[in-house]
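Supplementary Note 3. Input sequence used for the single-chain structure prediction.
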Amino acid sequence: MYFYLTTNEFYSGIYQGQVIDLVDFLKEELNYNVRLIAFLPLKGFWQRRKEIRRHAPSAIVLPMTPRQSSGLKWRQNQYLLGFICKLYGCKGIICRGPFAVNLASFAKNKNGKPGICYDGRGAVAAEAEEYNVFPLPIKNEIRSIERDALTLSDTRICITESLLRYWRNEYNYTGDNHYIIPGTLNKNFLVSSIDRSTKNAQREKLGYGPEDILLIYSGSTEGWQSFNLLYEFLSAQFRKNRFIKVLFLSKEEENIKKLKQEFPGCVNRLWLSPSDVRDVLSAADYGLIIRENTITNRVAMPTKFPEYLACGLNVLANSSVDLVTSFIEKHECGLLIDKHSDIVLHGTSGADNLKNRELAIKYFNKFDPAFRSQYVSLMNKLRYGSINPDMNEDHK
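The predicted structure, written as discrete structure tokens, is reproduced below.
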């Protein structure tokens, strides 16, 4: 038995694609006996447990006590996790984020089992410093928590090359016991196809005409998404071309309300279930990824990026996310807005749509043989887990 462990995360489209779909892939495609363990906050526990179990019926969903906001007592959950690992004879744990690694390390026995994989999704300490996302007791300890996640793990998943550089620079990680695996598409995006007539029908259903140039923003509008930069770009485009329209797939938010009031008829918003996002994305011409230049953003792998491409969209981005920047420059699947002085947008063609989808399937598909082989290698390392810190002693 192997576990995939998450802490303090709720069901969402990202959770479906990066957690549940991965667990299913490891079980169904690679024949590993993997089970999801999710620790959730006490507040709203039963409803959130139900949401995860609806999509992952075999998941073990447990209350995280006490609350993360109460400080560093979240470590107390290691005892329950240790008991479950012993009960099921766990051979290895893939840990999503540094908190999960720190909990899982308690479960190791004298033989070095279960093996631990740190699934690194971002620069956690940098995010804490740049965007103040943790309560103060955790913020004060987050750098050591992230460093320990690298030290305590037997192997690691790194979502981008830039995140690997961050590990090397910040924590003097010197090893090569890691796998660079970007965020991959969930199954819902892999089964779709590009059809121009379906695209046009979806646009009409949403209220957009054939002359409209539809930009779409999918995801959160939290601080690190840099709404001020997005506003600057969109307002310029609205003033330049009355056929430019933008659709936010986000929860209601004050910035979106203000933009709608300032540019009536140009801005709309929808909040959809994850299963409905793909069809709406496919109606658009461009997907938006415009963020401020911070460490958090530079090392990131925005989930929306391969989703935009899989739906045939060109991507409008600035040079704030290293992976997105290099991919657009290499494959010409969009525009970097900070490298063009006067941008004139046009609707995308069927050829654009097909090309972009092919790029997404080639580079962000966990079923690709290259990714499959990396996951097989990773699972074999977990089976024989023994700590190899790969860290310079001066930085432990």
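Residues 187-363 form a domain with the Rossmann fold fold (CATH 3.40.50.2000). The mean pLDDT is 91.
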